[in-house]
Amino acid sequence: MDYRRTYIRDLLDSEPPREASAFGWVKTRRDSKGIHFVQVNDGSCFQDLQAVIQEGVLDEETVKQITTGACVRLDGELVESPAPGQKVELQVRSVEVFGPADPATYPLQKKGASFEFLREISHLRVRGNTFGAVFRVRNQVSWATHKFFQDRGFLYVHTPIISASDCEGAGAMFMVTTLDLDNLPRIDGKVDFSQDFFGRQAYLTVSGQLNVECFAEAFTNVYTFGPTFRAENSSTARHLAEFWMIEPEQAFCDIEGNMNLAEEYLKYLIGHVLEHCSADLEFFRQRIEPTVVETLQHVLTSPFERITYTDAIKMLESSGESFEFPVFWGCDLQSEHERYLTEKKIGRPVIVTDYPKEIKAFYMRINDDEKTVRAMDVLVPRIGEIIGGSQREDRHDVLLRRIREAGLDEEPYWWYLDLRRFGSVPHSGFGLGLERFVMYVTGMKNIRDVVPFYRVPGSAEF
Ligand code: ATP
Ligand code: MN
To answer: Most exposed: 11, 81, 152, 275, by fewest CB within 10 Å?
Structure first.
């Protein structure tokens, strides 16, 4: 037994008649007169393999064990199927049951279980149709990401997960410590982090950007792709405490080039998913979001709209909509604003640029107006912000001033400032939230349902 056994995907595709062995988990068993029909799936494709067991071929004890959730090996002859919608089926001659699943207690029984319930059985939900499709799409998006950047000569960098600097200056970070919380060392009444593992305070990273910028100043075009962590106490359908981010960074690149890369990359991913996940997308279209496929096809062929934040505010002010959060120049765009712009006003992805400096991170390059920065957020229908990026401040004196204005301690940023002292270069980059993108292409409504095991406030089961 090894990985070279044939996947069900390949069995379904092969020419009958032939001898075949199928390995997988039973989705359903249906008993008809003198025949048992068994649907088996191994996750390799959306479609199940139908196995047909004629009465008398197996002893009844074995047949009884072939229930939903059981892990089996079925051997027999792959033949042309008389049933519609499937080319082949397996006429079973023998069965090995590796792991039975007691029908009385197996939790993944009934069809139509709610997503809320399925989250409580995240260890098993991956065997179902929806999550099979979600994780095949997620796999393809990850693979296509590497393909896209590698084909364009970008260097893949593994940025650290433990970090001493707060990239956004936002403070929503998880601390990493080995100090004894019941017996904290103190100095002048405060916790003495010099006695902590790293000799200083350390956190889980919120972004690999600052580190990846160092590599952009050596390899020009680079990207990082890894987990990031945010301790925001918000339980929305679009926020996780642990999520994956893809962050390219380009030297010799301004905000225009950055927008072009973002648009090209998103379209590449969409094209890849349309090509490689068609059966899964068809399921999402039928069962989750009727517009999903047509939206993706439409996005492929239409240029993204590009507007400034100032124009976006004007559009929102003259929209006649009543928003929960008030709109004024200087306000942070809320999800409802973002969705109005991209869904109702423009009807396709929009890149909003030149945000007020007060609502964006200190490292974004300041415009000559001294009020706005070269930020660019990509907004898409149904999701809102999917990418956040910017041209970076590459002038040492300006960056130092901005760090101070933001009220940050400049000491942890000494190396980041050094990048502007030695061989500085105009450079730009962005971050794409992997889960937000998977939501977008699948039509799934809650971010907890596109990540294998979700971490949100109050929940880190599994
Ligand atoms: P938002 O305003 O939606 O909270 P943000 O502006 O804080 O996001 P950035 O710091 O710009 O996010 O991060 C870049 C990208 O990472 C976002 O565009 C989004 O796709 C994704 N992202 C950010 N925060 C989260 C989160 N908590 N869970 C999942 N994805 C996230
Ligand atoms: Mn953002």
So the answer is: 275
